[in-house]
Every structure is written in structure tokens, then in C-alpha cells.
Amino acid sequence: MEEGARSCLLQSRSSLEQDIRASYLMDHMISDGVLTGDEEDRIRSKPTRKEQAAALLELLLRKDNQAYISFYNALVRESYGDLASLLHNSLPLVSPEAEKSFSDGGTRYVQAVLSEGGVPQRPVVFVSRPALVNRVREKLYRLQKEPGWVTVFGMAGSGKSVLAAEAVRDHALITECFPGGVHWLSIGQLDRSDLLVRIQSLCFRLEQQSQEKDPSSSLHRPPGSLEEAKERLRFLMLRRYPRSLLILDDIWDSSVLKAFDIQCRVLLTTRDRSLADCVSGSKSEVAVESGLEEDQALEILALYVNGKPQRLPEQARSIVRECKGSPLVVSLIGALLREFPDRWAYYLHTLQQKKFKRIRKSSSYDYDALDQAMAASIQVLSEEHRELYIDLTVLEKDVKVPAKVLSVLWDLEPEEVEDVLQDFVNKSLLFRDCHHRPYLYYLHDLQLDFLAEMNRSGLESLHTKVVRQYQQRYSQGPPTSGDEECLYWFRFLTYHMAKANLTQELCSLMFSLDWVRTKAQIMGPAHLINDYVEYGAILDKEVRGHFQEFLSLNGHQLEQRPFPDVVQLALSQPDSSEVYRQALLQAQERATRGGLYLDWVNKSSLKSLSRLVVQPHQGSIYSACFSHDGTNIASCGSSKTLRVFKSTSGEKLLEIQAHDDEVLCCAFSPDDHLLATCSSDRKVKVWNVERGTLMRMFEDEHEEQVNHCQFTNIRRRLLLATCSNDKFMNTKLWNINKPSSQNTMFGHLEPVNHCCFSPDDAYLSTSSSDGTLKLWEVSSANEWKSIDVADMFPEQREQTEVMVKCSTWSADGRTIICAARNAVFLWDIETSKKMADCSGHLSWVHGVQFSPDGSLLLSCSDDQTVRVWETKKVHTSSAVCLKRDSDVLFNNGDITVVAADNRNRLQVRNGRTGAVMFQSENQESRIRCTAICSQTSAVPSGTSLATLQGHTRTVLHCQFTPEGHTLITSSEDTTIRVWRWRTGECVVLEGHKEQVRCFSLLTTTPSSETHLLSWSFDGTIKVWDMSSGEPLQDLACHQGAVLACDVSPDGQLFATTSADKTAKVWSSASWECVRLLNGHQDCVRSCRFSWDGRRLATGDDNGEIRLWNVKDGTLLKICSRDNKDAMDSLHGGWVTDLHFSPDNTVLLSTGGYIKWWNVEKGEALQTFYPTGANLKRIHVSPDFSTFVTIDNIGILYILKKVE
């Protein structure tokens, strides 16, 4: 028995044992020949009904597919319909030979009855469709006690007639329901005279058979009219054949059907499901799917060419897919191949080119060629409906449309459209998806191909009609309802414009930032990118590139909710970009109405490395890989899902709930038909990509999580490699057709994170947490070479052990990529020299891979993004990036930025252009803080003016006093030093017990002496006399570390925030706490008074910002509530800095990104998304028009308000 059928029986076992009476079912199974008398006796010997049922099921599990189908049929016959439905979806396929003997019931009686009744014999080439056959039989059993109608309907060539004949080829059905016989009458498209001849013939046949059984009965003269024929037939069916079945094959017209409305039992086949509405009596129907399963269709082709399905050429599958498994097309082509077995490619090409006239056959089907069969259905429509049906030529394959779309196209009321579509559906000219409300409608591929071929010359005008009708209906702007109609227009309007050859209008639409914004908001960015790729040949190449680059690099932002401001995103594009030009115009116009927009003025100094950024999963992404043809990417991660999407646009193609725990890796097979996944649940699974079904599972050999899996590169000898956290047996090779592993590699004593075959499959590389990369011979499983990767990253090794996360080979086998921390490195395997590195991910990189041609590089990360890089453009190892420890001087419109870089050099940059004005020599140790004296006016020369020694540990903060003569520094050594930097004199402020990260100058009145306010991780605030170094106040402020402090503009108050989740406001006069501010759910990291001293803003590590009334301590507003982003924070990370505008109406905050808030409403006015994240600090010009910051990957941002 097939595995699926056995599994279904086991899953349904308890329900079956509870309800069935085995004695009722066994009679049927014995007559089918699947149960013996001895077996029946053993089951009947059980004392209780439930034990008998259990014994029957136990016996059934040891039998074959025939036994399963017999058991299912028995359930149907004994009215266990609900139990039969449990088994229905797992009905197995049966070979034609076995099915033939089985379906005939093992008796000649069935053959005799069907032969007498004129039922056609099975086609020479026949494949069972057991699920459909059993569905028809189930309906026929309902006619056992009373007359009625069973309608079998479907489109042309769907196999209705064969199905009807097969349904009655059953011994039990005939003996129990139709002992009077089964009578077949082929109808087709007839006029009244032809119909009369058919009924006369049937009556004669019935009378003749009756006379043979009863010689005393006499033959009557043939009826002379339809009315007389109807009465004669009524008499024969009710009196002489009272329990017989009349099968009417291929009914087209309701008037024809009325001639058989004589209170008898009728099974009819038709393309029009509504025909039975015109007759009386009980009715039921069975819809015939338009296509066979791929396995069934391949079996038919194999039978025609006397071969085996698995040995058919690749074109066989393509033929089946092209015709969607249509029984008619498969049979027609099979018959042709029997005569010309080497014409697979020719008939596939014929089908693809829609040359239906060439697909002719010689069989008993009514039409000589496929086009005639298709045309016959359309000819029965009224002329008005025929014209409307032809309009459907413009639809795309496999696209379902709501009636509203056709209402626009036909300029009819939706109700009228639904009536027309119902007529098409009834005639099997259109299909309806009833799982959606409102209903969606679609054409079979063959119907669409036929229409396209029939209307080839008018296609352009039909598409033009669609566009014009849309423009007329939506002249004020596109629909934004988000319903199915709206989605259709956003997805396919560009398609219709391209097909209508409306190139100018297509360019105007696709090069509009308004269209991009609206479509991205409703459908996401992937469809937009697809459009630019799809219609690239007819769009302006340069402008298309601008929009495609914008969407590819910002697509992950456009997936966020709330939806970002597209104009602000577009302002980060290069100045030469059409996207930027449109965005700037819109920003300037909106600024006149109070809108806030920021222009990144130094962006020209940055080249984007990424080609595409996608956010396919919620949560970390642990693996991503190209398909071997480069068109698709698969990804997986903490969401436990496997996802496949297009590499050009990120459009989702497949999503599977793959494992019970995090999915750590995914890999395509060489032919892209299979995908392997492995997981923390210790299982390895192999999936069919096209169907999304599980093919194989290995779950016994790995005892810890399986970190990585990969197929060999050559399909000739397909192997799968896996590696895990197991202590010794952590790398294995599998033959996917065998249940256990083929080989195990020994060598790593720490977890193996990654494995990868060399291009020729001769070697396997493994990357381990022990800091090494090992190369193994695949044939022998012996270690060939070991590389100590950790030695190549001395900086990282000083801080922590280097864990080699992954590696991959280039196509020529000369280059390997390695990922460590949040960077991707390339090096030459022969020289072991690092060639280049890529920075862009915000967190640990888990996977890297070259595209098949080596032009692209794929990486995925904990930051929830997949990045595609252009290999030629990645940074070399000499690339310079800035550190976030910076200072900025705003002076009469000039901006000076000072910051350290990743080579321990000090850089001074022009804040208008980002150009380097000065760069120091490399320093021996990392530069941790910088400060600019506000009194300086000279262009920096690089001359060292003083070296001040005294601190014993890292200096964390430095600041000049306003007059510039004094420099104050604080350190990890718990001290603060006040320097007369020109003379080297120093006052040491000692008293803190832990590191002092920052301090502030405190002036209570303009005339009073300036004191120093410092805070520390020891939870205290201290006030110092800077000249003597004596502490004036020592306040134990918080139970946790003090993280921030701010002094009110008038110096009367200061605020502190802490890791204890509180903020406090203190008096500078009494040194007492005047306000305790509770409410934050995480460490309070930042605070800032408004310039009028009336409000205090506080920000925490959950990204939440609170606005407080300083006077009474009441909470005024909470910013960012209910708007968590994908990084699981309200602000993309900690809120690290806050600033009020001079008029106190706007609040600026930094975290994972930069936000501007309306203070009165607590609502976001604007968001700027940097390329990196984790912004430490932002510098603001006095007029609140210019903002300067550096992100965690060293990019400098100089932002200026758009005026």
C-alpha cells in the first residue's frame, strides 16, 4: 500500500474503529476480491463490534492499494460518507492492468450489462482517476431509491465521457442500484430531427432487449414525433427497465435534456453545469478538474510510446505543464507520438506556439483537432456574450480576476457582469474560485491560448481598450482600496500598456514617484522591481536604472509598517537620479506647507555596494542560496519557514513551514528540482521545489542541531553533505535514496558551522567554531588541508575567539569567501591573502554564496536582510570607514566634522561636502573620543600642539570649555582631569568608583562660577569645583548605573536617567530630587530638556520616548507607542540622543535611525533610515537645520532640512 494511504489509515484509525460495522463492509470487499472467506471468519470471531473493526483495519494495513480503494467504496455504499471523506484525499493510483480487473469486479456480468447498454469500452490507453470515479459513484448510489440526475461537467477534453463510463464499471453499483441495466446514448450538438432519430434508436434497442428476455412482448413501430418518442421512452424506462440508468453523453442544449425528463435515473456529461436546472427531480453534480496530475499524464504518454514514465524525455514533463495536464491534449499528442516517437520537441514547440490545428488525432473523439474542440464551446454563446468572451484574451495565464475588473473593461454594472460570468462558468468556458469573496474568475491555459491564437491580430487593440477603460474609470487617480480589483490594476496595468504598445504612457507611469509610492504601499516593492526588469527593453535605460536601484536597495524599508515616507527615502538617491529630482521637488513643495524633509548633502561620497536588499522573514535569516540557474533565491531562518523568491525582485514564489524549530540552512540540488533544509530540531529534509512537498527526511544520526547542508554541484552523482554541533561525528555525506549516511568526516572537535563542495565535487570544505577551515577528499573522507582562519583576523582574535561561520568557493575554485562577525571577506586560497571585504550588514552574517557566474555575491544576516552584492564593486581591504566617536563645529554656516577612522587616524572633514581636510598619521591605539574647540578658526594643519598624559585607562569623553583654554577628560580609570592644555597643568577629580562616561558644565546663573557635573556607572552624580578639584556634592541618584544627564537651559535643574528604568529631576540649588519619573520598561538611556525648560524628553532601550511636564512631573506624551519595527524595537534600537528645536515644537531622536517628532502631538514627522544602525550621537546646528551623525559601519551623514 502506498505510504500516503497507509498514513491516512493510521491517522483515521480511532475514528474508524469507533463507528464502522465490519460485517457490513466485508461483503463488499469479498465481492471485490480483496478479502478471503477465512479472513472474514477470523474478523467475525472477535467478540465486540469495535474489536472486529480494529481487526479489519489491522488486516487492511497489510494489504495493497486495491484493498484501500475497496474499503473506501464500501464506506460510500454503506453511507459512511463522513468517514469516507477522511480517506478520500489519499486514494492511491492503481496501474491500468490492476485497475481493469479490479474495477470490473472480477465478473463478466458487468461487461455484459455495459456492452448491452452501449457503454463505450475503456480507451486503449487508460489511467485511473480513482478520486473522481468514486465521487461519481457516490452520487450514483443516491439514485438507488428514487429517480434523479447526476451531472458530470467540465471543459472540453477534460475526460468526462471516460469518467462516466468508468464510474458504472462496478459490479456492486450495478447489482444494487441499476439491476435493470445501464443504457448509453451519445448526444452532441443535435437538431430536433437528429434527436428524434437518437431516441427512436434507443427505444428500439430497449424493446429488442426486452423481447429477448420476454418473447411475448412485441416490437412497436418507431415513434413519429419527439413527444411520442418521449412517452415511449418513459413507458420503457418505468415499466420494463424500472431500475436502470440512462447515461446521456455530451449534452449541449436544455431543450434536448427536456426530452429525457421522464422520471428515470440519468447520468449526463456536459460542459454546461446549469443544464439540469430545466428538469425536475433530485439533482447532484460532479465537477471534473481540467487537468490530470503530472504522474497520471506521464503514465498516459508512456503507455502510448510503450515506455516507462521515469524514462520519458524532459519534453514530456514540459508538454504536461504546458497543457496543464489536459486529458484531451495528452491523449492527442500521445497518439501522434505513437506514430512519430521522435517528435517530442516538435509537439512541445507546436503546443507552445499555440498551433492547435496541427495537433490532430485519429481516435473516437468528436473533433479532428484541438482547435475545433475549443471553438465548439464558444459557438454556442450568443453574439453579445461571444464578443465579451473574446475580451478575456487580454488576461494573463494563471491570473484570477474579480468581476469588478471586467466591469471596468465592459463598462457594465457589476451585477450584469456577474450574470455574464455565471453563464461562462456554466458552460465550462471559465472557472470560478469559490474560496474567495467576492468570487475570482480565470481561464484554463488552453482556453487562453486558443483565444490568443484566434485574436492574434486584434490583441494590441484589446489591450488598448483595457487601458482606456481604466483611465476613464480612474481619471482622478488609481484605486487605493486594497481589494482584489485594486490589486489587479496595480499588478497588471503596466502589462496591458506594454502589450498595447503604449510606450510613452508606460514610461510616464513607471517613472512617477507617486505610482511607485502607491504601488509599493499596496503590493510591496517586489512587483515594482519585476516591472522594471520585465519591461526594461522598452523603457529608458538610464531612468529605469535609477528607479530599479532605488527599489532594490530600499525594498526592505518599503515592507515596513507603518509605511515609510517614500519622498524621504528617495532623497538619499544620487543627485543625478531622476528619483532624487522628483523627490526634491515634492519635498520642497511639501516644505512650504510645513512638511519636514532632510537632504543627505554628502551622499555622493558613498558608493552603494548592494544590488538588492530583501526582508523575506520576520526574525534572523540563517541561510540564503541562489538556484543554479541564478533566477531564484531560497532563504530560511528563525521563523521556521523556507521561502523561495526571485533574485531580480524579491517576489515570493514558495513558502513552506519546514521544521519544528529554527531552520538553519537551505540548499538547491544541481537541477534546482530539490531543496534540502536542516534545523535545530536535528532533522534534515529534502523538498520538491515545484510542489512544495516533502520527499525525504533524515532524523536519526545527528544528535545535536544540524547547522548546514549542501548538495554536490554535479547531478550525475548526487550527494548531500551535512554538518552539526555533534562532538565528533559532525560532518556527514548522504545518498538521498538511502536511509542512512554514506560517510562521516572526523577532525573538528568543536561545532562545524558550514560545509561546501568544491566546483568539481572532489573536495568538501568545513568551517568550524575552532577557528579553522578544513578541506576533505570526498571520495575517501580524509582530511586534505587545514587553514587557521583566525590568524587572518588578528584584531578580532584579540577581543574574542574567531568563529568561522561559513565559506564558499568561486566557480574557478581559486577564491573562497568567509564570513566572520558582521563582515564578509574574500581571499585567495593559494596565497591565503585577503582580497576584499564588504560592510553593510548590521549584525552577524550567517551565510555567503557566489552566483553561478560569479558576478554576484549573496549574504544573509541576523539583521533580517538578504543582500546581493556586485562582486566587482566590493570594498578592498584598504577601504576607510569612520568611527562613531565624533564632534562637529557649526560656525557661521561652516560645518567641521572631526572623527576617528578604522585605521586609528584622526580625520577632519568639510561638513558641506564630506571632503577630507586633514588626516593624521596612524596612532598606536584606538582613538575613543574627539572634541573641537569652538574658538578655532584656522584650517587644521595636523601639527600636534600638546600630548597630555595622566589617565591610566581608556579616555571616554573630552570637551573644551567655551573660552578654549581648558580641556576636560573622563576615563575608565574613574577619574576626571581638568587640563590647562597649553601648559600641561592638570587638576584630578577623584571620587567615582566606576568609569565616568560623560560630564557636563553646570552654571546656575550667568555670573556664577562654572561647576562640573559628572555621572558614573556607580549610580552617583558628583558636582565639582573645577579649579580646586574638590567635590561640592555627592548624590547617590539611582540603584543602577547613571546612563545620561542633562542640565536645564537656566541651570536651575538637571535630569538623570538610569539602568534602573527611572529618570529623576534634581534642583541645582537644594541638590534634592524634585521629580521621580516612572514608566519606562527598559534602561533609560537618554534625556534632554526643552529650551524653555518646561518639558523633559527621555528615551529608553526599547525605543520608547516619553515627554514629561517638568513643573509637576506628569507624563505628556509617549512617542512610538504601538509602532514596533521589524528589529523588535520602537526605534530600531536604543534611543541614544535627544534634541529639541529652538522653538520647542520638534524633538529629534536617534537610535537605529533618526526621527523627528511633533512635540505637541507625540507623532513622528519624519524618519531617516541610515545604511547602518546603532547611532550613538547626533550633532545639531543652532538653527536646527543641519544634522550630523555617523552610523555603526562608518558612514557619515550630513543632513540638511529641505527649504
Automatic annotation (TrEMBL):
GO cellular component, one term: apoptosome
KW Nucleotide-binding (keyword) present: yes
Gene3D superfamilies: 1.25.40.370, Death Domain, Fas, Helical domain of apoptotic protease-activating factors, P-loop containing nucleotide triphosphate hydrolases, Winged helix-like DNA-binding domain superfamily/Winged helix DNA-binding domain, YVTN repeat-like/Quinoprotein amine dehydrogenase
Pfam families (alphabetical): APAF1_C (PF17908), CARD (PF00619), NB-ARC (PF00931), WD40 (PF00400), WHD_APAF1 (PF21296)
Subcellular localization(s) per the UniProt record: Cytoplasm
WD repeats by residue range: 656-697, 745-786, 838-879, 948-989, 989-1034, 1035-1076, 1077-1118
GO biological process, one term: regulation of apoptotic process
GO molecular function: ADP binding; ATP binding
Domain of life according to the entry: Eukaryota
Predominant cellular place of this UniProt entry's protein: cytoplasm
Domain CARD: residue ranges: 1-90
UniProt keyword annotations, A-Z: Apoptosis, ATP-binding, Cytoplasm, Nucleotide-binding, Repeat, WD repeat
Keyword Secreted among UniProt keywords: no
PANTHER family: APOPTOTIC PROTEASE-ACTIVATING FACTOR 1
Listed name of the protein: Apoptotic protease-activating factor 1
Source organism per UniProt: Oncorhynchus kisutch (Coho salmon)
Gene name per UniProt: APAF1
